[in-house]
Each structure stands twice: as structure tokens, then as C-alpha cells.
Amino acid sequence: MSGSLVCVGTGMTLGAHISPIAKSHIEQADIVFSLMANGFAQKWLEEMNTDVRCLQKFYLEGKNRNITYNEMVEAILSQVRVGKKVVAAFYGHPGVFACVSHRAIKKAKLEELPATMEPGISAEDCLYADLGIDPGKTGCMHYETSQFMFYKRNIDTSAHLILWQVALAGDKSLGKFSTGKAYRQVLVDLLLEHYPRDHQVILYQAKGIAIEPMRDDKIALTDLVDAELLMQTTLVIPPCGKMQPNEAILEKLAAIDKKEDRIKNGPALTLVL
User: Fold this and answer.
1) What is the reported pTM?
2) What is the mean pLDDT of residues 255-273?
3) Active-site annotation holder among 53, 65, 81, 215
4) Which superfamily, per CATH, for 4-121?
5) Is 65 a catalytic residue?
């Protein structure tokens, strides 16, 4: 019998965000591997399937996360190879800040094993709803915080800048669960090249349980150094400037509009008496 892998997302809020197809995959799987946000979510998952195996045991403080992720992938695929119908369930969206799912699917396909992904409600989806941000209004830039620090990235201060995993700012070891104030100061100094010192930023955390509040603490940018940051904290930096018109492009588009209007309306008719 051929095994298979489906990576599903259970959403951010326990029990409220899971899709019918994700729930069906979990219930019908031979084995479910899980990476949940908390013990409540793990117990909830275990009510849907009798063989749920938690992947959290692979995490250790100081252990390189690439090693951890590869061990998780191997645990998942070892069961697919022996013919099991396997589901890997991740909180949020299984393809957003969840490299285990991408690695597992890629490796499964290289081994010609069936592997697919079903989407889930991510922290980004919740962020737009909770903070009232429409990404279509001024645009949003999304970066993983350390990557944003390690590489030269363009910053448009007329759009929202959203930095994920801010608690890990500046970590190159891939073995820490958080970094200290000195690392955060480097991040703040980088941001101060573009934003005022008193610019109000938001520390955001989506609800993991329906009865708990989401976090939307508003602080000055310079206060980020001393703020309480958790693994799931996201830094949201609202715009501080206005969008600047691209006059050259606008002129080109106006010329096209004018030309199309002439074609549409046709040549003017001259009335001969």
C-alpha cells in the first residue's frame, strides 16, 4: 500500500479556525504528527485521532533548529515510506513560517511519494482582522526579523512594515528561543534610520484560545528594547509617510488613456450641407 502525506493548518484560535477538509484529513489519517501552539491544542487534536505524535520533543535550547527541522521531516516521512496515510498538522497556516512542511513535501516528491498541503488561517490573516489593516490600502512589507537585519532590504515608510519573530532578532545560531536587549538595540538603530524615535509601533499576538485577548500593545519605537517579547510576538510598524506619486508613470498612462479614447470614439464626423 502506498503511503501519503498531507500537511494541514489548524488555524490560530483553538477549534475556531480549522477548515472542514483539514479536520477530515486529521480524522481519517493513520498517524498525525503535530506542532501545536500549546498543550490545549495538542489535547484537542488528540480527540480527533487516536495516534497523534507531538513533534515538540525535537526542540532543545541551544540545538540548531535546522537539525531539529530535519529530524521532524524524517520522523514524518519514515511513516509515509511504510505505507501510512500521514497528516502533519501545524497551528496557523502549514506553509507560513513552517519550513518543516515545505521540506517534507519537497523530499516526499523527490521520493515519488504523494504529498500535498491544505491552507489554514495564519497569524497574518488574524493580524489584518484584529488591527484593522487593509493590505490593499497602502501595501505591506513582510520580513522575518533576523533576515531583515542580516540583509539590505528596501523600506517604504508609506507602507506597513511587519517583522515576524521579533523575539529572535539578530540570532545567527538558530539555537536560541530569544535574544537580549543588545540585539534589539541593533534592530531599533536600524529602524531609526527610517522612522522617528517616538513613532508608535504595535506588538501583536493573535488569540490562541477564543476567551483570551489578542495582544496589540502600542509603544514608542525606542521602547522596543525593553518590551516583553515572546516567540509569537510580531512587530507591526505603521506608515510614517505618504505615498509619493510616480509622475513619469502617470504621464505614460494618461497618454495611453487618451489614445484609447480616440480609438473608441472614432474620428469626428463633419456635417456637409
Assistant:
1) 0.88
2) 76
3) 65
4) Tetrapyrrole methylase, N-terminal domain (3.40.1010.10)
5) yes
